[in-house]
Specification:
Low-confidence stretches: 228-239
Radius of gyration: 39 Å
CATH class of the largest domain: Mainly Beta
Distance between the termini: 116 Å
Number of helices: 2
Helix content: 10-25%
Bound molecules: zinc ion
Number of strands: 18
Length: 320
């Protein structure tokens, strides 16, 4: 699933359900449970105007679902759904600023997993929140690194296989003074800004020549005009592997149960074929029994005829 940065999560998210007329909100998740949600970059200052402990969907009311409305000075109104009432952070009337913790995700109510249902209104009308909350980095464009920028490493830095400390480091320490080309990013994960940097053709970087680095404090690497001696100009972006899957146990159990089911079906098939063989045998025996019964009847008939003939012979003899 495609990853985005969102200031709602201060990190990367997936869109689990996009905005549509039947779903006038956006659903965002990131595999984690009870994820902290922050007041987004675009909205400015606001105030909590309403909270309910239940949520109505398609005429059904779901209890223990914290639903929270915040009205912002900029004219936006947000509504967040699916948190647990036990995770309430704010109360009605509390003031809210950019980046403030305002909510925690949950999977209460009409939901198939932990996610944030985020509704956005402007001037009272429901609008698609995606352009406001996806890739909404709060940087001035001039301050930002750009793809294809050449950067110089200002301090020895470990390279990782993906953006975030949960990704394995590629066991390559990029030395101070190395020059690379930015080929991907930024991703904001674990409180750092991560960039995918290519060091191809650096003599000292042969095996692991591309990976993700955190620009700690924004000055770990800086744009440079140094010659491109260590760069081959390729912009093949490294696609990071999927992060650790929190549903792994359930998936494995599901596979095991499916295998068990296969075994049960196989045993059942085997028993059915044995029943078929036995049924055939019973039919054969029945046939044999029928045959022997008719044989016996014929023998008895022959005996009766024989007796009649014998009597007739005796009678004829007596007349002689
Ligand atoms: Zn939703």
């Amino acid at each position: 699933m495609k990853e985005y940065y969102s200031s709602l999560f201060k990190g990367n998210v997936h869109v689990t359900t996009p905005f549509s007329t039947s779903h006038p909100a956006i659903d965002l998740g990131n595999y984690k449970t009870r994820n902290p949600i922050y007041s987004p970059n675009f909205a400015g200052n606001g105030k909590v105007t309403k909270q309910t402990d239940s949520y109505k969907y398609n005429g059904i009311t779901y209890s223990n679902t914290l639903t929270q409305w915040i009205a912002y000075d900029t004219g936006f109104e947000t509504c967040t759904v699916h948190g647990s009432t036990k995770d309430r952070i704010l109360k009605v009337g509390d003031k809210v600023e950019i980046g403030q913790l305002v909510y925690r995700t949950g999977n209460t109510g009409y939901s198939f997993g932990d996610h944030l249902h985020f509704q956005l209104k402007k001037g009272g009308a429901l609008i698609d929140p995606a352009p406001y909350v996806l890739n909404d980095l709060n940087f001035k464009p001039d301050d930002m690194l750009n793809i294809k920028d050449r950067v110089e490493i200002k301090a020895d830095t470990w390279m990782r296989k993906g953006p975030g400390i949960e990704y394995e480091d590629s066991k390559y320490l990029v030395k101070k003074g190395s020059v690379g080309t930015v080929v991907g990013g930024p991703r904001n994960v674990d409180g750092y800004e991560w960039w995918d940097i290519n060091f191809k053709k650096c003599p000292e970087v042969s095996k692991f020549n591309q990976g993700w680095m955190a620009n700690v404090n924004g000055d770990r690497f800086v744009v440079t005009s140094k010659a491109q001696t260590c760069v081959d100009g390729s912009d093949g972006v490294v696609v990071p592997p999927e992060p650790v899957d929190s549903c792994k146990d359930l998936r494995e159990e599901n596979i095991k149960l499916k295998n068990d089911l296969k075994e049960v079906v196989a045993v059942n098939d085997h028993l059915n074929s044995e029943i078929n063989v036995l049924t055939q045998e019973v039919l054969l025996l029945q046939d044999e029994l029928d045959n022997s019964i008719s044989q016996q009847a014929k023998e008895e008939e022959t005996d009766v005829l024989l007796a009649i003939v014998l009597k007739r012979v005796q009678y004829e003899k007596s007349k002689l």
